């Protein structure tokens, strides 16, 4: 207890003097500037001044916020969501209460509207001021640490890449490029407070030179759609990420030791091993040895887990098809029709906070139990399978090697299968090589496709780089779902929404009607057909659907569609370039390994079972 009190006292002193005191003062100072800008916005609104004046004060307030985005998002993510979250109604899975959006994105819609409603602008401005005031009160009672300041700053570079330059939080005004500069200025201000700790001035010089280069690039007179995001990330953000980590080390600030989604021992967000799959796993299944995943691989391909010994996990998740099966919907158990939804890829499935299209479970461990027990999928039973496996001396030996005991349990089976699925990481594509410095790994067509994906086409506002799934950077605490208005058939003339109600079935929340998890687009070129119902056979059809504005663009009227209904106006060439980029995300070759044998049973019938199942 005395050591804890001493540590708290020391930290308190550091917060009131030195770099942390400067950081705290800067944080509060920027919130004062936000409030001042919002005061002016409120006054101008009250006088019914023209839209351009209101937009100017809105932009000022948001730039001040971007200066402190790193601190606010890291320390107070819930408050951050109220300040700068999407302008969409939300509903928690286990709560009937509808959460009404607030903050800058809501205000942006009002200030940049074609028909200005001054009363609504005034109301939303006042609401935001109250939230900022609450933030100020919270900052006053908060304790800073050097490690947290630098972790937040480094994650801000990820935010700029994944959320900023994609236009995620400026979907109406398209001020994202200017705001990216403000974010970098905020990070620069934080690092300057630690400059006196640097023994080597060359690191500070290199850092500031790279910042100036990034500022100059962001200041180029190009519009939102024309901005070259690939070059900005490769030539500016990645070098800044490396230099910021060097700066942190030179300032003698260690990384935090607690588990996070991003491995901050890596200096950029494209390095191998930069994402911690353990962050997404339950505590009992973290950091396990390779023998557990190897056992899981054997179980994955063994039909002995099914009710008829003919069907395996690999029946619907085939390695050569990027762990899908190429079918609209997989064949059901005993050929009794088809399963309810399309089989998604399992590559990078470990980097999600929820599983299944309807997100009904959080962990892969629960998913495998659900699939095995499902009467139309594998029609098995985990406890019965455990008893069956106990009859195999080979399996008992494998479980003992993996878990230190030859008793086979449901928990150990789930753990092994989930560990194998989490080992299916595919983050070594040609695109990743490009971002690691090998510019020759992509063609100009593919680079142009990436820029479209992250810009004009708005794909990157839901499929967040660099994982390109729906798990939200930079903290990766939530995997999003969207209501797209997916049709039952590929018909753009007389389209009808697919009858599958999605998350509504799992949670019985009206706002979740027709909502489905945002899946990864890595390996998308290998995983046709597409969508939860497999309605689209080609990527061309998928891009055309989004280009029209989703369901709304083909006559499907869903009041809760979350995909913007606006047409993207992509040309045929631009659509082809996006597909070329998606093909550059393929990384399946190292994962397509299948066991050559299955563990023997002293049972002639079982020993004839087929690796990967019969159907």
TrEMBL record:
InterPro entries: Cyt_c-like_dom, Cyt_c-like_dom_sf, Cytochrome_c_Peroxidase/MauG, Di-haem_cyt_c_peroxidsae, Imelysin_sf. The keyword Repressor does not apply. One of its GO terms (cellular component) is cell envelope. Keywords: Heme, Iron, Metal-binding, Oxidoreductase, Peroxidase, Signal. GO terms for molecular function: cytochrome-c peroxidase activity; electron transfer activity; heme binding; metal ion binding. It is found in: Cell envelope. This is Cytochrome c peroxidase. It comes from Chryseolinea serpens. The lineage of its organism: Bacteria, Pseudomonadati, Bacteroidota, Cytophagia, Cytophagales.
């Amino acid at each position: 207890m005395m050591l804890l009190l001493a540590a708290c006292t020391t930290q308190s002193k550091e917060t009131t003097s030195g770099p942390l005191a400067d950081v705290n003062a800067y944080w509060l100072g920027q919130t004062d500037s936000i409030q001042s800008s919002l005061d002016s916005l409120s006054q101008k609104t009250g006088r019914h001044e023209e839209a351009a004046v209101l937009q100017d004060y809105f932009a000022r307030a948001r730039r001040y916020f971007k200066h402190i985005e790193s601190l606010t998002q890291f320390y107070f993510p819930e408050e951050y969501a109220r300040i700068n979250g999407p302008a969409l109604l939300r509903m928690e899975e286990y709560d009937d209460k509808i959460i009404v959006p607030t903050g800058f994105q809501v205000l942006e819609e009002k200030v940049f509207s074609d028909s200005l409603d001054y009363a609504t602008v005034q109301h939303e401005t006042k609401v935001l001021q109250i939230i900022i005031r609450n933030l100020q009160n919270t900052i006053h009672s908060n304790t800073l640490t050097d490690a947290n300041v630098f972790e937040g700053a480094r994650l801000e570079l990820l935010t700029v890449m994944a959320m900023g330059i994609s236009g995620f939080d400026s979907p109406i005004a398209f001020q994202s490029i200017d705001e990216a500069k403000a974010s970098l200025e905020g990070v620069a201000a934080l690092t300057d407070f630690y400059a006196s700790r640097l023994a080597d001035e060359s690191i500070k010089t290199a850092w500031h030179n790279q910042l100036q280069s990034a500022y100059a690039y962001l200041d180029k007179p190009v519009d939102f759609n024309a901005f070259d995001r690939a070059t900005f990330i490769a030539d500016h953000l990645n070098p800044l990420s490396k230099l910021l980590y060097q700066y942190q080390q030179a300032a003698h600030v260690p990384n935090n030791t607690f588990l996070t989604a991003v491995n901050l021992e890596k200096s950029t967000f494209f390095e191998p091993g930069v994402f911690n799959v353990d962050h997404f796993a339950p505590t009992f299944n973290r950091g396990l040895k390779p023998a557990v995943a190897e056992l899981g691989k054997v179980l994955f391909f063994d039909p002995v887990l099914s009710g008829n010994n003919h069907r395996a996990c690999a029946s619907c998740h085939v390695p050569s098809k990027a762990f899908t099966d190429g079918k609209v919907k997989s064949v059901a158990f005993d050929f009794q029709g088809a399963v309810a939804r399309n089989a998604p890829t399992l590559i990078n499935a470990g980097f999600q906070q929820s599983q299944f299209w309807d997100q009904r479970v959080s962990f892969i461990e629960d998913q495998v139990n659900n699939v095995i027990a499902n009467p139309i999928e594998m029609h098995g039973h985990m406890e019965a399978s455990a008893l069956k496996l106990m009859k195999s001396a080979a399996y008992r030996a494998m479980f003992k090697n993996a878990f230190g005991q030859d008793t086979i349990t449901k928990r150990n089976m789930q753990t092994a299968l989930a560990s194998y699925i989490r080992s299916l990481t595919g983050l070594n594509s040609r695109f990743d090589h490009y971002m690691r410095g090998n510019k020759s790994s992509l063609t100009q067509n593919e680079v142009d496709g990436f820029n479209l994906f992250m810009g004009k086409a708005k794909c990157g506002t839901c499929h967040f780089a660099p994982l390109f799934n729906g798990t939200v950077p930079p903290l990766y605490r939530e995997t999003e779902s969207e209501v797209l208005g997916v049709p039952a058939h590929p018909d753009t003339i007389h389209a009808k929404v697919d009858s599958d109600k999605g998350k509504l079935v799992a949670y019985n929340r009206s706002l979740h009607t027709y909502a489905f998890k945002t899946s990864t687009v890595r390996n998308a070129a290998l995983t046709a057909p597409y969508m939860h119902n497999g309605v689209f056979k080609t990527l061309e059809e998928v891009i055309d659907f989004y280009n029209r504005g989703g369901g709304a663009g083909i006559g499907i009227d869903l009041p809760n569609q979350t995909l913007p209904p606006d047409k993207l106006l992509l040309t045929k060439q631009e659509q082809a370039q996006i597909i070329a980029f998606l093909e550059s995300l393929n990384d399946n070759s190292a994962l397509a390994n299948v066991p050559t044998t299955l563990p023997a049973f002293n049972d002639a019938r079982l020993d004839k079972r087929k690796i990967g199942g019969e159907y």
